[in-house]
Design a protein that fits this description.
One of its GO terms (molecular function) is hydrolase activity. Associates with the 50S ribosomal subunit. InterPro entries: G_ENGA, GTP-bd, GTPase_Der, KH_dom-like, KH_dom-like_a/b, P-loop_NTPase, Small_GTP-bd. The chain has 441 residues and is α/β, with parallel strands linked by helices. It has three domains: 165 residues, Rossmann fold (3-Layer(aba) Sandwich), CATH 3.40.50; 179 residues, Rossmann fold, CATH 3.40.50; 79 residues, 2-Layer Sandwich (GMP Synthetase, Chain A, domain 3), CATH 3.30.300. The chain contains eleven helices and 21 strands. The strands form six sheets. Strands 5-6-2-7-8-9 form a six-stranded mixed β-sheet, sandwiched between helices. Strands 12-13-11-14-15-16 form a six-stranded mixed β-sheet, with helices on both faces. A three-stranded mixed β-sheet has the order 19-20-21. Helix 6 runs parallel beside helix 7 and helix 10 crosses helix 11. The longest helix is centred in the first third of the chain and has 15 residues.
Length: 441
Amino acid sequence: MSKDNRPIVAVVGRPNVGKSTIFNKLTGTKISIVEDTPGVTRDRIFGEVEWLNNYFTIIDTGGLEPESDDIIISQMRNQAMLAVDMAHVILFVVDGKGGLTAADKEVADILRRTKKPVILVVNKIDSKSQMNNLYDFYELGIGNPMPISGANGIGLGDLLDEILEQMPGGLNTEYDEDVIRVAITGKPNAGKSSILNNILGEERVIVSPIAGTTRDAIDTYFEKGENKFLLIDTAGIRRKSKVYENVERFSVIRSMSAVDRADVVLIVIDATEGVTEQDTKIAGIAHDEGKACIFVVNKWDLIEKDNKTMGNYKMDIRQKFPFMAYAPIEFVSAVTNQRINKILDTVLMVSNEQNKRISTSQLNQVIGEAVMLNQPPSDKGKRLKIYYGTQTGVKPPTFTLFINDKELTHFSYTRYMENRFRENFGFEGTSIRIDYKEKRR
C-alpha cells in the first residue's frame, strides 16, 4: 500500500537561521542542493519524513530565496505566504544566538493571521546555558518557543512529536499499488481544472477563467472499467500576482510536489501561448524523476489551422524538449471536449510501458546486435566491453549493463543503446535508465 495526500510541513525563516540544516536532519539526507538536469536546474527542496510510522512532506523554503538583491523582509514575506498557502503545519525558525529581529516580527505578523498551526522553533540552542535566549521570542505571540539545535540534533524528537500533534486528520490515505497516479501540471490558466472536470464528467473542481483560482491541490480517486486512477490537480496560486514577486517560480514549486507523487505527468500547454519557461521546468523535473510523460496541448479549438498546423506545433515541442522525444503529444480542447477521451487511453498506454519488463534473453540479443552494428567506445587502446545486461527495475524501466570499465562509458553510446531498446521494445511515454556495473572476467 502507498500513502498519498501526505501532510505538508513548511520551514520558514530568514536566511542563515538554519532552515536547511533542520531540513537535512529531519529527512536524513543532504538534499537541499541544486542539481543539473536535462532542461532544468532543480532546487531540491522537498523531502519525505517518517516518524513513528507517520509520514509527511517537508519543504525547505530556503530554496525559494530569490537570487536578486531584494530586501530580506520581502523575501521572507513571500516564503511565509507560500507556506501559508501550501502547508498543513508551519515551522517558523528563528536564531537563538542572533536574537529577535524586525524581519522575525514581520513574518510573525503574517503567520499569526493564518488558521494553520505554527510551531515557533528557536534554533542554535546548543546548551542549557543558552535557554535564557528563549524569553525574547515570547514577544512574537506564537505560543511557546521550542528550543532545538539543528546542527547537533538536540530537541528534534520533541519537535517531530509536536509536528504530529498539530497535524490535521484525514490525510495519508492508502491506495493499492495498482492505482495509476496522474499529476496534471502546467502554468496557471492553461486549463488544468477544466481537463480534470471533463475527464471525470462532472464539475468536481471549481473552474474559472481567472488564473490561479485552484486553491489547494485536490486528489480525485476514480475507477474506469478495471482501471483505478488518482488525479492530482496541481494547486494554482491563490493570491493575485502582486503578492508574489515571482508567481511563475512558486507555481513550479507546487508542481514539484505533485510530480514527485505521480506515476504519469500530464504537461498541459496553452495552445494560444505555446511552450513557456515553466512548461520546460516542469517537464525537466518529470523527466529527471523518471516519470511517464504526456504533452497535452489544450485550447486547440482557438488555433487557426491548415494541413500543416499540427505537424508544425509537434515539431516545435520536439525542438524545445529534445530529451523527451519519447513523450506522446495530444491536442485537445477542454471547452469543446475535443479528444479529451484520448487522454486516459494514452495514460493507460504509457503506464503499461512504464511497467513493462523485458526478459534477459531478449535484452541480451538486442545488446549483441547493437554492439555488432556500432562498436562501443575505446580510449587509449582499451575498448568498452558489455558482457551482458538485465532489467533491474520499472517506473522507469531500468537496465544494468555489466561491463569491464566504467571510465570507458560515454553518454553518446548510452543514448545509442537507449534508442536500440526503444526500437525493439517500445517504451513510449517513459524515460529509460541505463546503469553500468563493472564485472571483472
